[in-house]
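can u do me a favor
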C-alpha cells in the first residue's frame, strides 16, 4: 500500500487524538470550576441589547435621567432674598402700609353706618369721664365689648384733641391694628418658611382691599385681625416645636392676644381660636 493511502489514516488518527485531548480537557475544566472557592464572584451576565433604550437621535446611548423635581425647594429670586432680610422686610412693609393707608386720611368722611356709633360712644366716654358705661346718645350701647372704645378714647387723649377729635383720630386704632396685622403675618409665616416667602405673604395682606378699607374705619375689625394673627402665630410655633415645655413668651403671646381679642370683639374672637 502506498504512503498516500496511509496519509488520511494518519490524519484521522491525529484528529482522533486531538478530539480525545479536547474531551479529556473538558472534565478537567469543569472540575476546576467546581473547585473554585465560594467567595469568588460570578461573572455578571451580559446586558441584553434589546432592552437598551436608544437615544432619539439613533446614537444608541441611553437618555440622561430626569432631574428629581422634589429634591429641593427652588431658591427665590436674588432681589427677593435681599429685601426679604428680616430688618429690611419689616421696614419695607411699614413703608408700603403707610403709602396704602394714609391717602385720604384727613379728608375722607365717615363711610360705614356703624362707624359714627363707635366714634360717638367713644366721644361720650371722653365727655363724661365714664369709661365703663358704653352709651350712644341716651341709649345703652353694649353690642361690642369695651376694648375698641378704650383704644379710640386713648387715641383722642394722646393726640390732644380729647372730645373734640375729628373722625380721623378715631381711625388711628384701626390703622395701628392693620399695621400690626401685616407685621404679625410676617412673623407668623416665618414659623413655616423663610423670610422672603414670609415677606410675600405679608405683602398680600397689606395690599388686600378689605384690609385697606378697615384701616380707615373707626370699627373693631382691623385691631381684631391683629389679635387673631398674633394668637395663631404663637399657636403655630408651639405646635411646630412639638416640645412639652414651651417658651413663656409664646404662651403669654397666645393668651394675651386671645384676651385682647375677646375684649375687642367678644364671642366671635373666641370662635376663631377654636
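np, heres the sequence
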Amino acid at each position: 500500500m502506498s504512503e498516500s493511502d496511509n496519509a488520511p489514516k494518519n490524519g484521522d488518527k491525529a484528529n482522533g487524538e486531538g478530539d480525545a485531548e479536547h474531551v479529556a480537557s473538558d472534565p478537567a475544566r469543569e472540575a476546576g470550576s467546581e473547585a473554585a472557592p465560594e467567595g469568588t464572584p460570578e461573572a455578571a451576565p451580559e446586558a441584553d441589547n434589546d432592552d437598551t433604550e436608544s437615544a432619539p437621535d439613533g446614537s444608541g446611548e441611553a437618555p440622561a435621567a430626569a432631574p428629581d423635581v422634589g429634591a429641593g425647594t427652588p431658591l427665590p429670586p436674588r432681589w427677593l432674598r435681599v429685601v426679604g432680610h428680616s430688618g429690611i422686610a419689616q421696614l419695607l412693609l411699614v413703608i408700603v402700609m403707610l403709602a396704602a393707608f394714609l391717602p385720604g386720611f384727613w379728608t375722607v368722611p365717615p363711610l360705614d353706618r356703624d362707624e359714627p356709633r363707635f366714634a360717638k360712644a367713644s366721644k361720650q366716654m371722653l365727655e363724661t369721664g365714664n369709661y365703663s358705661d358704653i352709651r350712644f346718645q341716651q341709649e345703652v350701647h353694649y353690642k361690642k365689648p369695651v376694648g375698641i372704645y378704650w383704644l379710640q378714647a386713648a387715641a383722642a387723649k394722646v393726640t390732644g384733641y380729647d372730645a373734640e377729635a375729628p373722625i380721623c383720630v378715631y381711625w388711628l386704632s384701626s390703622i395701628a391694628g392693620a399695621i400690626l396685622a401685616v407685621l404679625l403675618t410676617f412673623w407668623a409665616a416665618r414659623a413655616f418658611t423663610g423670610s422672603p416667602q414670609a415677606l410675600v405673604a405679608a405683602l398680600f395682606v397689606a395690599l388686600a382691599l378689605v384690609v385697606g378699607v378697615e384701616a380707615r374705619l373707626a370699627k373693631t375689625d382691623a385691631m381684631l385681625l391683629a389679635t387673631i394673627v398674633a394668637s395663631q402665630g404663637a399657636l403655630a410655633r408651639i405646635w411646630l416645636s412639638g416640645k412639652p415645655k414651651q417658651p413663656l413668651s409664646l404662651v403669654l403671646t397666645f393668651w394675651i392676644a386671645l384676651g385682647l381679642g375677646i375684649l375687642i370683639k367678644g364671642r366671635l374672637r373666641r370662635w376663631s381660636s377654636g
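The radius of gyration is 42 Å. hope that helps!!
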